[in-house]
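Researcher: Can you fold this with 3-hydroxy-3-methylglutaryl-coenzyme A in place?
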Amino acid sequence: MTPVVSGFSKLSKADKIKWIAEYHFNNDVNAIDTLTKYWNSNEKLQKLHDEFTENTISNYYLPFSVAPNFLINGERYTLPMTIEESSVVAAASKAAKFWQTRGGFRAEVISTTKVGQVHFTYAGNVEKLEHFFSTINKKLINSVAHITKNMEKRGGGVKKIELRNKSTDIDNYYQLHCTFETADAMGANFINSCLEQFAKTLLSEAQSYSEFNDDEKEIEIIMSILSNYVPQCIVRASVSCPVSELPNTSKLSSLHYAKKFIRAVRIAEVEPYRAVTHNKGIMNGIDAVVLATGNDFRAIEAGAHAYASRKGSYASLTAATIKDDVFTFSIEIPLALGTVGGLTNLHPLVKLALQLLGSPNAKKLMEITAVAGLAQNFAAINSLITTGIQQGHMKMHLMNILNQFEATKSEKEQLIEYFKTNTVTHSDVVTQIERLRN
Ligand SMILES: CC(C)(COP(=O)([O-])OP(=O)([O-])OC[C@H]1O[C@@H](n2cnc3c(N)ncnc32)[C@H](O)[C@@H]1OP(=O)([O-])[O-])[C@@H](O)C(=O)NCCC(=O)NCCSC(=O)C[C@@](C)(O)CC(=O)[O-]
Ligand SMILES: NC(=O)C1=CN([C@@H]2O[C@H](COP(=O)(O)OP(=O)(O)OC[C@H]3O[C@@H](n4cnc5c(N)ncnc54)[C@H](O)[C@@H]3O)[C@@H](O)[C@H]2O)C=CC1
């Protein structure tokens, strides 16, 4: 068994690798070589990456791709996408190309309010707590003036603080439920700093509140933290066109296509097993743009899936309709994104990604990202209701399988040609490689 290590965090990078090699790889030089060959030859750049997180021993590459032809609110964009899965970028590009000749995507930010909470316990008279809160509400806001001063100049800051009584859920449990505007920042650090100060002010004011008895003064702060559930930080995006402009083939008329498409979305509205996969497809597009622009994809994922469950069961984040012979496909999703803060101004590729998008503010990035999700979902449903998902997905995945078998350039060329007219399956790729090699 690997021994317990103490002080690992304090070892140099070289010593960390030495330890890993000794206890996990039997000092195999190949393991050390794999870790070190991903280092950047530019020492300054490598140091920057080392310092993004802790105990860094190497870099983990993901492709940095682009999807062109996105027409959004009349402007043309090339989207940066960072994702490991084949066919996602191709699918986004295909959807963008399709819709750019049909008016493009429309997108609109509905609201940008974020939430944070101070969770505390208070064992005493509720009316007294409510009265106490009304007397300190302004003091709470004033106590964070040093933190909010610059944010207010940008039009942000604390919007409101409410006292919420949750004691029917958990004995003596209350919250300061606070709302914020954070301008172009995602806002986690800003909100958390404000909340921790609210908690301190709450405690100190309780100590000097003469109406409280000694027990009531013993408010206990459980925790102060922003919420990644942001149902008031919402963006909406849509595409629409006459039904007659939708794809049509000898097997499927445009009208039949539209009805089948709507049925596929309806299934994701009522059937959670389908909804989760449907929304996973949406997140293929969203996460790729979120990662490329240096945003927190865990926060985005958690918030999106919570929103998908807001009506009591997990459902589709997109909707589709036909009205007056016009097909409309839309998405509504919470996206607490930032174009400042976090890694946005630190990671050279993130900076480049934001420049590629024309240096958007947070609202514009919300619109672009929602569109990436909608486009991805359109491409996936288009495949699902026509050819099936495997045809296109496996066409894109072919190169990965060929690389797994270390196919030569000539083998690749021959097999790409062969699979132009044959469906790609893992087993047939193996058979065809063996055929070429024997
Ligand atoms: C894969 C395609 C796009 C092929 O589609 P196709 O019609 O065979 O592509 P094409 O070769 O005719 O090219 C048409 C356009 O597609 C794009 N395109 C095409 N190939 C490339 C490429 N190599 N690199 C970059 N872009 C590409 C590109 O825009 C191109 O235009 P062009 O550049 O030639 O003017 C299509 O089959 C498709 O959209 N499939 C859906 C794929 C998908 O959704 N993948 C996600 C992974 S599966 C999953 O995770 C989620 C899912 C699907 O389960 C969700 C759900 O169930 O809802
Ligand atoms: N639960 C969660 O989601 C948590 C996330 N985080 C992390 O926090 C980071 C995001 O926090 P932030 O406070 O956004 O980042 P941050 O603290 O790095 O930077 C944001 C700061 O930039 C400044 N700023 C400059 N120009 C601005 C403008 N135009 N608009 C707004 N602010 C401007 C403000 O001082 C603002 O507070 C992410 O890295 C995230 O992963 C941290 C804790 C918890």
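Model: Folded with 3-hydroxy-3-methylglutaryl-coenzyme A in place. The domain at 69-111+231-386 is CATH 3.90.770.10 (3-hydroxy-3-methylglutaryl-coenzyme A Reductase; Chain A, domain 2).
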